[in-house]
Amino acid sequence: MTDLGAEQKGTGQAMAARLWNSRWLLAAGVVAVLIAYGFAGISAYVLVPALLLLLAAAILPAAGVRHSAESAGAIEAMGLQRLSGEYLAAAVADPLIIFDQAATIVHANAAAFAAFGGIAPGISLPLKFRAPEMQALLDSVLSGTVASDVVDYTEKLPVERAYRVSASSVGHGTDLYVLVFKDQSEARRIDRMRADFIANASHELRTPLASIAGFIETLRGPARNDPAAREQFLQIMQNQTGRMARLIDDLLSLSRLEMKPYLRPGTEVDLRQTVDSVIDSLGPLARENNVAIERDFAKGPLDVPGDRDELFQVFENLLENACKYGQSGGRVVVSIARGDDGSEPGIDVTIRDFGPGIPEEHIPRITERFYRVDVETSRTQKGTGLGLSIVKHILTRHNARLTIRSEVGKGAAFSVHLPAH
Amino acid sequence: MQSVHTMSAFDEELKYLSKRIAAMGGHAERMVEQAVAALVNADPGLAQKVIRDDLVLDEGQREIDDKAIIIIAKRQPMATDLREIVGAIRISADLERVGDLGKNVAKRVVAVIDGRQPTSLFRGLEALANLALTQLKEVLDVYASRSVDKIGFVRDRDDQIDAMYTSLFRELLTYMMEDPRNITPCTHLLFCAKNIERIGDHATNIAETIYYIVTGDQMPPDRPKSDKTDKIGLPAALPVK
Q: Is A315 among the domain residues?
């Protein structure tokens, strides 16, 4: 009902507008008819229909339509002239860079800053994007051999990213060019993930699988009628399947991390609350291992930009390691401090244990996948060899640093430095 | 960024030099990346491509040398301009060496993948290569942005690379002691690791040259090297059981 009312009202307004638009024509007509009436002595029977005809002609929409089309054209021209390239670039979600004839950056939108960093207006584009295919793309567009071109561009470090980059000239005679990056990382990563997963999983799953196969063979053969051995073997097999399940969980979580594109800006994480809940969730494990967890948190707000779930996983993995491998120390200290002394302001979270420590030669390598300081201990503690790689991966995405300090016999300290902004 | 000369042709020439350096840098980065990928994925085809690509870098260095000499002769540059040109000569020489080291890694691919090695052997090498390549990338990014205040990271990275190399050295030595059949591939991998570690050193050299170009001062002297492989003997590397 209300819709209909509004529509009628709209029609009424349109009619009034048309009348108003043709008011001069209408007035002239009325005057002419009145003059004719006065001087030529036409009867009133002719006068009334003539006036009505005039009114109808004025209401006819033709003139009004022409007028509104003209005004729409004017609005468009005005709007486009007003539209600044900067606003348009900012509205584009993909990284976009505008550059001039000398391949110098004129403008880069926020997405480009977030993706590549270190690109300010005035920087020469071929110095920043040095890959041979990007050089060729810039050359071909700038030399004018083609108006626009597209290449696939991959950045391997620090996080692998793949883009489809298109370069084209803007307008006629502006001497400006535009570079747009379309993120293809996800598709690429899915491909790689499949290959990586098969390579890692087949290698790491083979060991427990071989052991299970061996025990099944024994159970069907020599140990067929030995209940004690059977029970023991079944226990081992259960442990092995548990290990395979954990391994698959960790591999999947690592793959999921690798699939996500770089971190979305804008979310804040309260480290105090996050670390507190990690400590709570690991309470049972700490009690089981007879480890006391001590807190030493700085006062005031401890917020950093980041993803809460991912950072939760970082501290969970680190604290779990500290409880498991630093068990002999009997206590673990978790401290949060503002690290303003270094090159960039941020917050340091340190998890320190007092166990056997890590020999120096292993420290640079313990974040590699499946790298184990001591294979036996790792097995008994149900480690998968992926915990610290997951930590490293998440921290790289947060632009954070992991520092490991350790002295054999005195324990190890894992420090995470998260940049404030 | 650069002061404008009355002769814009001179600016053009300087710009051309830095553009050629960047192109060489991109090429060197790509070569090292592909050489390590060829090693890890056992891909002799890719290794052959890397070996062929080295010609481009040699050519690039010759061209930059020629151009730089001509500019010096023609324009008689002073101060920043002279540093820029001499710097270009030095950086191009470093990049050419990086390419050679990448080529050397690629040449060993066939020997290493002869008997299929476990992937764990390559994982450390890959991590080392990632560190060296990150260092090279960051240094070349500074060449683009000229923000030398950020150049301190180079020293830290160099320490990390050295620590990683030392650790890798121990690991490979352990493998060789475990099984003499590992000696051939492990020796090749040891050379590959050394080559990659050298790439980090060249990146540091480039960083020092950039610092000199921009500030006119030499970078403060380097701290003592922390590569400890010279102290690793057989007994020290025996696995502690």
A: no
- If you average pLDDT over every residue of chain A, what do you get? 79
> In B, residues 33-72, which contact A (CB 8 Å cutoff)?
33
d(Cα B14, Cα B16) in Å, to the nearest integer? 5
Indicate yes or no: CB of A126 within 8 angstroms of CB of B22. Answer: yes
pLDDT tens per residue, range A92-137: 888 899 988 888 888 888 888 888 877 888 888 888 888 888 888 9
List, as one string, the DSSP characters of A249-315: HHHHHHHHHHHS-SPPTT-EEEHHHHHHHHHHHTHHHHHHTT-EEEEEEPSS--EEES-HHHHHHHH
Does the residue A139 lie in any domain?
A: yes
B171: chain A residues, CB-CB within 8 Å: 365
**Chain A to chain B Cβ contacts (< 8 Å):** 86
State which residues form the domain around A97: 85-183
Answer yes or no: is the ipTM higher than 0.90. Answer: no
Question: Which overall architecture, per CATH, does domain B8-234 show?
Answer: Up-down Bundle (1.20)
CATH number where A205 lies: 1.10.287.130
Rounded Cα–Cα distance for residues A93 and A265 (Å): 13
What is the number of structural domains in chain A?
A: 3
Q: What's the pLDDT score for residue A261?
A: 56
pLDDT digits (tens, 9 = 90+) for A168-220: 888 777 788 898 998 887 777 677 767 766 766 776 777 788 888 888 888 88
Cβ–Cβ contact A131 with B under 8 A: yes
The span from the CA of B13 to the CA of A421, in Å, is 40
The per-residue pLDDT for range A268-297, each reduced to its tens digit, is: 889 999 999 899 888 888 888 899 999 888
Is B23 in contact with A135 (Cβ distance < 8 A)?
Answer: yes
B22 touches chain A (CB under 8 A): yes
